[in-house]
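haha ok so turns out i had the wrong file open the whole time. this is the CORRECT one, sorry everyone. sequence first:
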Amino acid sequence: MHELKTHIWAMALIRRARSAGAFAYVRHHGDDDAGAVLIKTMKDNKTAMLWVPERDENYTRIWVTSTPEPCPDEDIEEIIKTRLTRDPDLWVIEIEDSKGRHFLLDDETRSVDL
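then structure:
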């Protein structure tokens, strides 16, 4: 199975978020070809969620949250700091959106209640 190189996928996600009116940027630049990606989403109220990749039973990448509900930004930052210590090839993309969208779905029309 072939997947896009990480830097291409990351730039496409950022472009998608920006074109929808969100502010998105690379917080930490990992390995261009195969680095894993964490997506931090923030809403106006300064709560955040962290989306992490996993594989389903068919080895398809799916996105899950690291916490069941939005939590204070400081808690998410601690998770990111720990993950970066273990994996320097990791990418971190931050998306600030008033609707709480993460832009990981093809048809993202819903808001996430942050």
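Residues 109-114 have pLDDT under 50 and may be disordered.
again sry for the mixup
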